[in-house]
From TrEMBL:
Keyword set includes Protein transport: no
Gene: LOC108874529
Record-annotated membrane-spanning stretches: 115-138, 158-182, 194-211, 258-274, 281-303, 309-326
Topology term for the membrane: Multi-pass membrane protein
Main localization category: membrane
InterPro entries according to UniProt: Sphingomyelin_synth-like, Sphingomyelin_synth-like_dom
One GO CC annotation: Golgi membrane
Domain Sphingomyelin synthase-like: 254-327
Reactions catalysed according to its record: an N-acylsphing-4-enine + a 1,2-diacyl-sn-glycero-3-phosphoethanolamine = an N-acylsphing-4-enine 1-phosphoethanolamine + a 1,2-diacyl-sn-glycerol
Chain positions covered by the region annotation Disordered: 1-71
Chain intervals with Acidic residues compositional bias: 1-11
Protein family: Belongs to the sphingomyelin synthase family.
UniProt protein name: Phosphatidylcholine:ceramide cholinephosphotransferase 2
Length: 389
């Protein structure tokens, strides 16, 4: 029997009932679920809708729904926690990490500069000692006349020329000192300068001591010899040091320091450092310094204070050791090359000590020698920030 027949036979026919189901949103939002001690706590919420209830009637659907809600809540909680911790950590500043190797490619290492300064100071003082010793061995000009010199044959002596030499030297040294103070990497450049000064004057001590030349002109006035008077020799050394070895100060009255010329060394070395560590666009500055250096060297010969060989050897010794040192300093790959013949110099261990941690060519950068106080820097930032706004 079909269902329609059963309905027709049934006398108790019930009228159809219509049910309207409406859902209303409460005025207060439902409480969010909380996580306490790692356990999810659920609050009582409004009864589920019939559709949701019908979906959750089966155990599998109910478990999947709960698992998806639990995983989404955990992800939201982790995201909020990471964001809040990140904000707390970076609320005051943003830390930018710089690779350590790049940051330390040009270390200052002032203590090495101090060692190089002591090296130069020792050789300068030792030079005055050698001059005092050699002075006692200079032959008398009345017995041994000056050696023949081709430059002296063609150019007569000009008495004031040597004063020009020393004035030019003082100007060049002063310019280099001011320039060095304003350089950013003054520690590295300073120890290079001190090492070259010390090495050149050590060479000068050797050449003066092993070969004593007669005076280059009969106009030269030499102090009397002291022979075995040790106290008098000490006073002469102190006087020579206090006057800087200059004739302008009246401290240099000894003879014998001819091979090679110390004035040529300082004139040439000052110019080389000024040109090497100044921008190329300052060509006018380079030409002025070159003129001061060249005219000073020529005036040494015009004054007949040194033989021509003294000036030539002084120039070659200064320029070659300067170029050798800076070639090795700027060619970092060739330092460890076995075929690098420049590394066979006797001073290569000293070079490695001074330049071991300098892994890049020193740039020409200027900066103020004295840093501003923190309060001034803070005001400067405020002013700059106000201008940007």
């Amino acid at each position: 029997m079909t269902a329609s027949e059963l309905i027709e036979d049934n006398d108790d026919v019930r009228p159809p009932v219509e049910a309207n189901v409406t859902t209303t949103n409460s005025s207060t939002p439902p409480h969010p679920q909380r996580v306490a001690n790692g356990n999810l706590t659920r609050h009582n919420s409004s009864p589920p809708t019939p559709a949701a209830a019908a979906t959750n009637d089966t155990p599998d659907g109910k478990n999947k729904h709960e698992r998806s809600k639990l995983s989404s809540l955990l992800k939201q909680n982790q995201l909020i926690h990471s964001l809040s911790s990140g904000l707390r950590r970076h609320c005051d500043y943003v830390k930018i990490t710089v690779p350590e190797e790049r940051a330390n490619r040009l270390p200052k290492e002032w203590w090495k500069t101090g060692v190089a300064f002591l090296y130069a100071l020792f050789n300068l003082i030792f030079t005055t000692v050698i001059i005092t010793v050699v002075h006692e061995r200079v032959p008398d000009k009345s017995v041994n006349p000056p050696l023949p010199d081709k430059f002296f044959d063609y150019v007569d002596r000009v008495p004031w020329a040597f004063t020009v030499t020393e004035v030019n030297g003082l100007i060049l040294v002063g310019l280099w000192l001011v320039q060095w103070i304003f350089l950013k990497h003054k520690a590295i450049i300073g120890r290079r300068c001190f090492f070259l000064i010390g090495t050149l004057y050590m060479y000068r001590c050797v050449t003066m001591y092993i070969t004593t030349l007669p005076v280059p002109g009969k106009h030269m006035v030499c102090a009397p010899k002291l022979y075995n008077d040790s106290t008098g020799k000490i006073w002469r050394i102190l006087r020579l040091i206090s006057g800087g070895g200059l004739s302008l100060t009246g401290s240099h009255l000894m003879c014998g320091d001819f091979l090679y010329s110390g004035h040529t060394v300082m004139l040439t070395l000052s110019y080389l450092f000024i040109k090497e560590y100044s921008p190329r666009w300052m060509w006018w500055y380079h030409w002025i310094c070159w003129f001061l250096s060249a005219s000073g060297v020529i005036c040494i010969l015009i004054a007949h204070e040194h033989y021509s060989i003294d000036v030539v050897i002084g120039y070659f010794a200064t320029t070659r050791i300067f170029w050798w040192y800076h070639t090795m300093a700027n060619t970092h790959v060739a330092r460890q090359d076995l075929n690098n013949y420049l590394s066979r110099t006797w001073w290569n261990p000293i070079f490695n000590f001074l330049e071991r941690n300098v892994q890049a060519t020193v740039p020409i950068v200027f900066s103020w020698p004295v840093t501003l106080p923190s309060s001034c820097r803070q005001r400067y930032r405020i002013v700059e920030g106000g201008r940007d706004e």
